[in-house]
Hints:
Elements: H1 6-29, H2 41-62, H3 78-100, H4 107-118
Amino acid sequence: PHVSLLPNAIVAIGMTTLTSALLFLLVGQYQLGKFVRFIPYPVLAGFLAGTGWLIFCGAFTSARVVPELFHPDKLFAMPELLRWMPALVYAIFAYILLERWIDIKYFPWIIVGGIALFY
């Protein structure tokens, strides 16, 4: 039988959102944020490095390029370069635009403009 995953994904996103909201509400209500300082620095650094690596890989995966840890030279081969270079150029353009001329409140419009430009 054919089962659609969309309803399950929507429920999972909703439950995750509600659980996160409740957790942050409790942390704020009982002022538990001060206990973060007891988490060891290598644990926080590893968590942030892992999160950064996942974002990095996700960005390349959305451009249909699979980054390989031990073969970074493959990222600069011509077919892969043509897939991810426009996104890098757009990111640099958006950064310079926001840094020099435009207020941060226009950032959603920059994102919408980038989506329209690419698709």
